[in-house]
Each structure stands twice: as structure tokens, then as C-alpha cells.
Amino acid sequence: MLRNILFKRYQSTNQAILNKFKFEQINSTSYIKNILNQVDADNFEKKELLINGWIEKKPSKVKKDLFQTKLRDNQGNLLTVIGNKEQLKGIQVEDCLQIKGNLKLRADKLFSNEDIENFELKLNYLKVLNKVDSPVPSYTTTLESPDLIQEKYRFLQLRTPKYAKMLQTRSKLKNVVRNYLEDELDFIEVETPLLFKSTPEGAQEYLVQYDDDVSNKSNLYYALPQSPQQFKQLLMGSGVSKYYQFAKCFRNETLRKDRQPEFTQLDMEISFGTGKEVMEIVGEVVNKCWRTYYGSKKPLFTLGSNNKVITVEKESDIKRLNYADVMAKYGSDKPDLRIPIKLINMKEFGAKAGLTNPVFNNFEIIHLPNLIKNENDLKSIKTWLLNKEHYLDQSRKPIIHGILTQHDLDYWNEAFADVANIESPKLVSRSLNMKIGDVIIGSDREADNFVFENPTPLGKMRNILYQSDLPLLNDYLNKNYPKLKEDIVSWIVNFPMFSPVVNSEVKRIQGYPNYNVGSVEATHHPFTMCQLDHIPLLQKQLVNDIKLHELLFIKSQHYDLVINGIEVGGGSTRIHDHDLQSKIFAKLLNISLERQTELFGHLLDAFKMGCPPHSGFAIGWDRFLSILLNEKTIREVIPFPKNNKGVDMLFGSPSKIEKS
Amino acid sequence: MLRNILFKRYQSTNQAILNKFKFEQINSTSYIKNILNQVDADNFEKKELLINGWIEKKPSKVKKDLFQTKLRDNQGNLLTVIGNKEQLKGIQVEDCLQIKGNLKLRADKLFSNEDIENFELKLNYLKVLNKVDSPVPSYTTTLESPDLIQEKYRFLQLRTPKYAKMLQTRSKLKNVVRNYLEDELDFIEVETPLLFKSTPEGAQEYLVQYDDDVSNKSNLYYALPQSPQQFKQLLMGSGVSKYYQFAKCFRNETLRKDRQPEFTQLDMEISFGTGKEVMEIVGEVVNKCWRTYYGSKKPLFTLGSNNKVITVEKESDIKRLNYADVMAKYGSDKPDLRIPIKLINMKEFGAKAGLTNPVFNNFEIIHLPNLIKNENDLKSIKTWLLNKEHYLDQSRKPIIHGILTQHDLDYWNEAFADVANIESPKLVSRSLNMKIGDVIIGSDREADNFVFENPTPLGKMRNILYQSDLPLLNDYLNKNYPKLKEDIVSWIVNFPMFSPVVNSEVKRIQGYPNYNVGSVEATHHPFTMCQLDHIPLLQKQLVNDIKLHELLFIKSQHYDLVINGIEVGGGSTRIHDHDLQSKIFAKLLNISLERQTELFGHLLDAFKMGCPPHSGFAIGWDRFLSILLNEKTIREVIPFPKNNKGVDMLFGSPSKIEKS
User: For B376, left (φ over 0), alpha (ψ -120 to 50), or beta?
Assistant: First the structure.
């Protein structure tokens, strides 16, 4: 009763706000493009359309009492709208509207089912659902430059066609993956915990307080997982046949380039499966996504015979490259195969390297003919290429020698005298056709089949060359060594199972890594299995005294997928034998039995109780999408990213909480 | 060269470990059932099968040199295996094997394509891939009682058919949902951040340290989100038309019954959409899942006309119940409609309630005829029903009156004299046909249309009655008031938008909630929109002085889906108007403008910049699955759950980290 009285009293007021919340419902499937597909050329003008959307362009006068504007509907289509002055009065960019009207073919166009741009909508009715009442940042008024929108207005950025398409693509490709894995291969998706155990060895983890009290009196912490590695291995021990998940992962390393504190990984693992089977699945996933997005217009390429690029039709086309070979040929385990710059090993020219550091007994060069004209050219190139920004990770710089005089040419070897001895420099320079104007970039690296400095100085230089904004260098490379246009994928296999530990405490001598003599770490992670024919070699190390040299020869069953010089993901066959895993922990990685139980007890228990052999993989989903969409950073493919300090400018996180 | 020498030297050793890692690869699709479908009755014995799996049953002798065991393959099928003594020597339960053999029809069976139990496999070859070398807990030797397996061996539990099926169902139903939302309705899935902003008002959040250092010197924290509510509303402001996500949510309330610190929510939101549209989608999702799992054998039911149960064929069949009506009829906003116990409001019998607390002016009873025989019966029933375990949440207890004598019958009202006055008790007892042996449970509750104590004492009692392990009560209810067998779903609508704040600081007087006079909180969350015809009433409150009584009459556009007395999920149409949202924050919820910007600035900004009207929903995915699979706790449907203290016994998290 009271309600009725109250209602009557206020019913006539505030029509404006009521209007905002009352609107006609649109059937989900009836947006413009669909309607265009359903009507024929003669009839489409008769049907009145109801459309929701935003004003993309401020109304402008076309003739007396006829105004034109553009509406972006909630599917991202742009539609020209025609109305009179009264109808479009006060309408602003980004106002949220509901309109009704009839479609007309534009005077200058022919009928086409395909292109909404050929049509315009004659307004019958317009209703403002939400009026922009904030000074929208001026550069957003056209939304043509989403890059300039401030991070705190990410939601405006996401309204633009580029980002709307990104969101759709990200969703659609996940579904392509799921349908393939679930429907064709019987994978099941399993969700694994995000509140995991802290393993202080990692040092890159985010700690979560168990108490909700800031002071966390209990000193109890969860940690957010860096990957579901241990969960998925346990799932294999749990009898799951084929597992996958789009998993959230966390790494507290905000100062590294193009990393996000949280990211998504397409994680998978199969029991009773080998690496070969996993690689087939992963290759197929990647190729399916690529073809779904690009069709046949822009397929993935790989290296065929003769190192010519060929289209990837099926996974088995994807070139397998050996770790040792790519380290020798490209100086990196994730070589950008689009780059035509070659590393020339000077061994065949009689170079004796290892002068400064005997382990580094290869001398190799990059030869760039006819690059410089004078001292200034050389200086600018050296300044760019050796810029300390490129070497923040303390990696070694190569030596750059510019040939500007006959002496520079005849005694080119002197520039490299510290690292290599070349007996007949003139013979070599003639052989390689060195000339005045050339630039030689040279460095030493470790023995073949035993390269752990990764990338090598020249491997790194191959990439740096192409990041330049120096016109001299850019023009030269574009003309003489243009990067291939094709997107090139390859597998990298036959990795060493262990790597020497680099001692970061000891200052590097001339930049060489200081290896801790006698101790090793897992090249990838300690759960990786060695190659089967290396089992005897591994067993010997576990039983007898460890011989570092022999240990480092052991190859693992790890495999990386690399596209355009970026590691898209990696995987391996894992250890499933309790004794072997425990001995590797104890003898090779120096983890005491007690500590093993503390850190990995769950996994070792499962190994003891009939865990099957298993293999798996993880694709960095954000990274893969950024390559696919040709974006420079993964921020562009994450709906709400953080900046490179881990700060979210939109939501204002993290925030300060004072401990009481 | 060195490698070759080393290999030769150790090649002959350690054949055992080599064996563990070498096995024949099975093509993914060729497991037993498939093969059975492909072969005919005459030919299946000729094909040798290769099968991976685990020993389910210790080999037993069937006749001289013929042993029998059971293998569980990695699809969960159980197969009888026949071999000789030598082949099965030393084989133990849960050993992980690869075997080869020929299928034979069992002597006592007829050929059938369907049932693997009709066949046995004659062993040709057996290889142990991983031998159990731990004392597997003895009760797991048959794996027939997974409930008894210790939490730390969750992986053994997951190997049992019950849990294997759960994992498959969880995955499959997610895919059913995705295909419906994406393929039929054009939803896109958007991933939202997990490192969110701390909003200390919540007090139930997990804090994540920004520093990786335990001491967290910066005092900067992220918080894990309790739901993606604000993200999804921002996505609506970002031009996303239809959003969904299986989202991870976190609540730091480990001491509440059947809660997990992390859980999964099927989260969705549509722009330019109303609650009606959302309810259609949600109802369809739930019904599709139910039918996928149960087929037509066990459909969902709802209330039809006359309150008879009817099958849910389509979403619009699902009964809409008003909040006010269910509070009056069932005393709870999530009534278990399977329970036939009725609450009798004594108003029609002339009862005058509100004696202790004038706001609580309804007196209602549950009448259980012919339940007790003597004082002992009454005592045991009272003890069970009023057990303080049920009332840990400080809710009020009803009064229980047992009728054992004529006096108890004639003056039954005296038991309730504190809360209600009944003028003619004998007239009423005759009317209701009260007899010696009956039990009357009675309590007062708030005025109709204004019930905020939820559940009411009798609403709560309806459920407690059916949780009893008291034979007397169980037998009585089973015989006289059996719970319906059907699973019953309903919508609850027309919730109050605001609720009075219960002052937990002040001690309750006789259990009644102490409402803070003059202050309210959002019944669901502060982003919920009111019903359109209540806008004038709301506006009045925002402009003039607040009148609590009028404010509490305002109904929201919130809707809950309830199955079998459990809230599966809730949703609403949201506020998208900046002024309205900000005024509600400021005037009704006492959030200053400054604090609004700090907490919700991102959302208020989006509202100012053309955010469309929008509505959404969230289904508690774990809870829904636990209802579907008829499990008592959500732990049963989570792959790696934590216990009710938030402790993970398998991984040992959280763990202690000493601050330095």
C-alpha cells in the first residue's frame, strides 16, 4: 500500500534517468551484417533496423537540415547515419545510443552484400543511453590513434577496431585449440591450484599471505605458481591420459623486457607419450591457429632442404635444428631465421682462438662489405651496435673493426689480436674479398658441441643489427641483407641436459662467464629426461665421481618451438622414475634428501606409486599471439596489462597498505 | 669421438632403467572400446592389442599355471588379463605396465560390442614401465574406497573411476558451455587480471606482496580478486558485446563451511542486455549441462502451476519466485523445494506476535504430528535440532514444544508466550488437529515484505530437520515427509536493493539482529540497479533526507538461481550511469568522493565515457558441479582441493617463511 502511494507520488519525475535504463532489446543475432546477408537487393530498404552503438564521428552538415555521422555498433561495424538537425542535436563522440532507421544504398555505390560501407541509415529514432559527460581526452575524439590513449583509459583503447579484433581473435583461437585437443584428441582440461607452495630457490615468485591481516603474524605464505609443471606431472601420476589447460602463470621479474607479472600459458601433458607425439600435437596447434587467422594468404614457413623456405603443410614439415648446430651457425638457441646475416667461423682459415680464455677456442666474424665511407660512419655504427642498453644483461660485446685504409685491410687481424691469432691475414682478406669500406665484427666463442654462452656475442649481434634506427645501417641492410618477409618456424632439439652454473658473484673477466667449477644446473628444469642412449652416461655420473666434462655432454629430451627468433614454447619428456629423479636432485643438483621431500615430496611419492612415462609442452600464449598479430609487445594482446614495473595504471595496483 | 667411446663402454649396463623409458607408442585413438567397435564377432581375436595401464587387482591363480589379473587402461576401462606364472611374477597393484595380447570372449559370455567385461586378454607380452616400490597405503590396494585415501595421496584417489569421471565431466561440461556461448550466441572469452587492487573494506582478500622479498619493504600489495565484477563491467565500457570467462576467484574465509580459498566461477556479462536475456542464457546453460550429463533419465524439475513439479524443457519453464514470498513461505531466499515441511503463519489464527521485538510481528510454526512417545524422544530431538553446531553463525533458535500431556496440548501456546499471544489456544489446536505425541516448532519473524533476517529460525529448521542422523527423526521424516527425489531449480527475483546493516559489535538481545539505525548496505553489491519503476523512489532518497523505511522497500534487478536449496549463482542488471552510481556510493553507502575515486575511479570514468547499459551473471562452477554430481562438498569436484583451513596436504602449502 505504502509502495503504491510512493510510486504515484514520484512517477512523473526524473524521466531523463528512467530513459537511460529503458531501451528496446535486440535479438542477439540480428546485427547489421546478418541482415544484409538475409535481404535481397530489392527489399532491404523496407525493414527498419534497431541498432545499439557509439558515435564514432561528430555529426557534420551535408546539406540544409541534413547531418551525417558514423555509428560504431557493438559488433564493431561502422555505419553512416543520416538525420536532421533536431535528431542529432548535441550528439558527441562516444555517446552511447540506440537508434532505429532504414538502410539505403549510398548514392555513389552499387549493391553489395559484403560491405556495410556501401550503405547509410536514415534515422527514424534516436535515444541516448549514456551521454559522455567527461572531457574525453582530446586525442581520443576520433579513436584513430589508440596508441596515444593513456593507460588509465584502457577501456577506450579496447573500443577501437584494432583491440576489438584482438579480443575476438584471442577468444576464437583458444576455441580452435580446445576443439582440436578435446574433440579430435580426447584431451581433458584440468584446473590446477593458483595458491601453491613457496619454493624460495625460485626467488621470482609472488608471495601470498595466508592471514588476511597485513602483519601476517603466522608467517605462513602461499606462492603463485610460475607454471603448472608439478601439477601436470602429478596429473599423469593421477591416471589422466591427456591434460591441457590455459593456465595463469606468475613471475615476479617486472624489470625484464616485455614481461608481464601474470601471463597465460597453453599447458599440456600426455601420459605414455613421447616427445615425438607431443611435437606433432603442438605443431598442429600452432599451424591451425595460424591458418585460422590468416587463411592461406600468409602461411607459416620453415626451412626445407637447401635451407630454402617452404610452407608448413603439416607438423612434420617443421625443420628440426640441433642445439649445437644453431649455436655454431646462428650463435643462439632461438635464431631468427629471417635474418640472412651469416657467421663465418675462422677455423677453416687457420685462426687459432682461445688466447684470452682457452675454453673459447672458436673465432668467428660477421663480414659487412661496403658499409662505411669514413670515420664518422664507423663511429656512429659502433656507438649504436655497442650501446650499453643492449648489454644490460652483462653479456659480452664483440669487437668491431672498420676498414678505412689499406693498413686496416692488410692488418685487419690486429683488431682481434686479443682473442685470435691469424697467421696469414692477407690471404684471408683476399679469400673473403675484404675491401676498404667493409666492417668486420668478430668474437670468440666456446668449443663446438659445448657452447653454453647463449647467445654468443655474434649471435646477439645478428639481432641487434636489425633493431637499429640508424638510417645508414637500416638502408644498408634493407638493400643488401633484407630480412625475409616470411614467418619462419623451427624446432630446436638435442639440448644439453645440464649447463655449468654461472657464478654471478665473481666479476666477469673481460665479460667471459665465470663457471662454478664442478657444479651444474638443469638447462631447462630438473624434471627433464635425458636421451635414451645417454642413460648409461648419466648412470655413470650418478654412481661414480662426477666428471663435469662428461656430464655436460648428456643431451636431454627437451624441444623448443621458435618462430621469427622468439621462443614460443618448450617441452620435454620427463623423468618418471623415482630413483633416477632423486639421484639427480641429490648428486648433480645438490638438493639434500630432506629438502627433496620438502620441495618435491608429492612428485617423488607419485613416482614411487606407478606414475607412467609422460611428456608435455607449454606454449606462451600471449607471446604466440603477439607474434601471430605482429605486435612488438605482449601488452598489446593482454586485455588489461600492467606496465613494465608491474603497475596497473587503470586500476591503480599494487597499492600501499601500512602495516599496523 | 669421446661420446662414442663413452657410449660403448656403458651401453650394456643398466638395461632395467633403460626399459622403463622405452616403450611402444600407442596411437591416441586406438583404445580398447574403439577396437571393439571396429571389429566383428568373428575377427576380433586375430588382432593383437597394445595397452597401457595399471594393475587393479593382484594376480590370482585360476588353474594350473594360469593366472588372472585386472588392468585399468588409461581411459579407465577395466580389462581381465590372463597369463602364466612367469608372465605375472611379482606383479603388484598399481604397477604401471605396457602389455600386448589377444582379446577372447569369456567362456561364460555372449559377444557384445558394448561391454568390455565380456572379454579377457590373453597375454603375449608384458613390460613394467614403473614398478610400485613404496608401501602403498594398504586400503588403496583395491582402490575401492577412495574416500579413505589420505589427502596427501590425492593422486591415487584421482586414479579411481569415480574421480576420473569427475575430471572428465568437469572438462566436458565446460566445453558444452563454451560451444553454446561462443558458437550459438557470439560470446567472447576475455581473461581478466588476477593481480588486482586491495580494497581493505572487503577484509576477505588475499594480499600478494609486490616485492619478492618477504619483508616487503615497499608496503605495496596486490590483492587476488573475489570475482571479476569490476573487470567485466569495464569490458562492457570497452565495447565488448558479450563476455564470459571461467574465472578463478579467491576468498580468504577458510573457516566457513564448504568454502575453498580459490574456486571457479562461470562469469558473464552482456551489454545492451536486460536481466530477462541473461536469465534465458543462464537457464539454458544449466539445463544443457544437466541434460548432457544425465540425458533424459534425470532431468531438472521446477515448480509448475499448483506447485506440482514439472520437467524443465526450456528456460522459461523455470519458476520465478519472489523474495518476499519465499521468505514468508520457506523462511529462506534459497529454499530447498524438495522439502515438503510447511511453515504455518499463525496470523490467520489470530496470533499477535512482536511481544519481544515489535519488528518481528509474525508468529509461525512447523507442526510435526505424532512424532514423539515420551520425554526421552522429545529430549533427543531437542538436543539434535538445537545443537549449537547448527548455530555457530549466531542465528536465532526457534522454540520446540513437545505435546506429551493433555496440559501440553490445551496450553501449547504457553511455550511460545514470550514471542506471541494466542487468545484461543484450544480453538487453534483443534483447528490444526494437534494431538498428544505432536511436536510444535515455533518462532517469530519480521513483517511480511520486510524480512531481512535470512534464513528465519524456521527457514533454517526446515533444513536442519533433514540433516539429522537421529533414527527416530529420520524414520519419521522418511515415512511422513520424504524429500522429493527430483532436482528442483527456481529463480528468486525481486530482492530488496538494500538491507539494514547488522551491528555485530553490539551483543544480540535474545538472538535478534541489531540493525544499525539509519544505515544500509547493498543486499548484493553496490553496482546493482534498482527496478525501473522504483527509480523515482530511489531518486527521492538521493535528493532528500533518507527515510530508511522507504529505502528498504526499493527492489533491485537482481536474480538468483537456486537448485535443491543451494544458490548456484546470481546476477543483475547493473548501474551504468555515473551520477546515480556516485550518489548511491556517497549518500547511501557512505563512501566519500575521494574514496570512490580511489576504489572505483576506473569504473566511474568508464560510466562517464559512454558505458552502455549491461547485465550479467556468475555461476559458482564448483558448487554447480557438486549439485549435478550429487556430492556433499565442492572438494569432491576440485582436482587438487585444500582442506577447510585452507591447507593443501598434498603440496604442503601454505608454508612458513621467516621474515629476516
Answer: alpha
